[in-house]
What we know:
Blueprint: E1 9-13, H1 18-29, E2 33-38, E3 53-56, H2 62-69, E4 74-77, H3 84-89, H4 91-112, E5 116-119, H5 123-126, H6 137-151
Parallel strand pairs: 1-2, 1-4, 2-3, 4-5
Nicotinamide-adenine-dinucleotide binds next to helix 1 and helix 4.
Amino acid sequence: MHNRxxxxxxxxxxxxxxxxxxxxDALLKLGSEVTVFDNLSTGFHDFVNSxxxxxxxxxxxxxxxxxxxxxxxxxxxxxxxADVRRNMQTPRAVWKxxxxxxxxxxxxxxxxxxxxxxxxxxxxxxxxxxxxxQIPSTQIRFMGRAKLQASx
Length: 152
Ligand SMILES: NC(=O)c1ccc[n+]([C@@H]2O[C@H](COP(=O)([O-])OP(=O)(O)OC[C@H]3O[C@@H](n4cnc5c(N)ncnc54)[C@H](O)[C@@H]3O)[C@@H](O)[C@H]2O)c1
């Protein structure tokens, strides 16, 4: 049965991570040609489905991104520092990775005339209810701001 993903060229940044690797599996099942772009900072090569093309690279490197974005039809941007606790230990690095890197993704897409983007935001932007996990509210606010900034 035909579906909108069948035969589409799709790039997944962060495709070697927890969420991204499942997304890659699902897209491959739907018939997409998937390329994973990941620096393996928290992801694992073994997580990446062998039917996907693996491009080792960093979203902070705009030249590498431009190369991999060219020719794609759709980008799922999941690459980020996702750990709320770690975020406050290295705020500048997290900002670069979650905000500046997202701008690089957008710039590369514009250069390659790729118009379809799905961005992985976070529930923390909208509610910040992480009390059960005992995460201080400053950490929640920082993570939320970085994700919000990246999505605006
Ligand atoms: N896991 C959750 O419950 C959850 C909830 C809401 C939103 N999200 C968002 O979904 C996305 C994926 O989260 P996850 O839980 O799979 O995290 P994860 O750490 O498992 O995956 C992130 C992936 O991005 C890669 N990466 C990080 N920085 C990179 C960079 N500069 N260039 C290239 N690759 C880079 C890592 O190596 C890793 O493979 C994140 O954007 C996260 O904020 C996750």
